Amino acid sequence: VHMPLEAAELEALRNRRQQWALLKARAGTDLHQRLHVETDLAPASLTARATVAWPQIVASPVLACGAVHVGSSSTCSIDVRNRAASPVWVELLLPTEEQAEQAEAEQEEWVLKRGHRDSVQAIKVASAHHAAFGLPKRPADKWQDSWPLGRTPQEAPPKLHLIPPGGEARIGSIRFSPTRLGAVRSTVYLRSNLTWLDEVLIVGDGGGGRLAVLSEASAAKAERGDPIGTAEDDEGVLRVTLSSEELAGAESKLQALAAGGESTTPLPHVFVKSFTLTNRGNLNLRVDWMSVQPAGSPARQGSCSHGGFSVAECASSFSLAPGSLRRLDVVYEADFRSELAAAELEVHS
Length: 349
Known about the structure:
By secondary structure, the protein is of the alpha+beta class. The protein is built from 5 helices and 20 strands. The radius of gyration is 32 Å and the shape is elongated. The two termini are about 50 Å apart.
């Protein structure tokens, strides 16, 4: 019969940690003994040394679930190993929201005392977000108990795993469903007949792509291979600025062309401005299509021009890896009738 994680178990784990910290402070984890051996030739002395380690059945106290797009899910499992001479049973447990929040207060102190590098890094870079982790669901009539961390009663109960002597296994199917960008973490526990209760820090990255248009200064830096700056420098408006001299020159060239002058490519009244796109997210970004339309109008696939503006590759799809760059050419065909022209470019990804 499954028993949910109890407060008494967590309290016992806290007491074990305190005892371990005291033992380590007194150098009690370093053991040594001098042995005297008598032989028929000559006596000999040997020194035996050993280090006591924190007992655990998990291969690592940190489980990395990797990067997952916000709004989607993936699963990750825990590797366990049995170094004992007899079989060990293991059960995966998720704490309640209250238990997780209570453990949060002392978890950082314990991780720093223990000194496990990956655990320390996880505590520093990831924020607590317990609701992002859960167990897979089962049909409602299969299990009716109430499950923790705000999960529904339809979620699967823990499964008991039996690990033979010297054996290893990958257990559990922990669901990671990020709802925000960035690194997040929570805690799960493994109950066993060998170490009683093991704590595992789960870490995952809520990811996604984020399209940005670099400013001219940042784009110039990118061309030189320099860092492209921060998101605060990105463009919110794509500006094709033409001076009065450029417009006057274009108009006179058009008049000369109409009088039989030599043609040019592009035509004198057609201007091309290049912008630099980048992906400031932490996962690949796929752009499916773009559209150009009046501001506030609904986007329509295949609509690649409006008000003199056009984007030749608006119907093309492409991918941008995090930090990669791509040039976007915006064409403006001047009609010489207004000082300001505007259109809206919408990107669908």
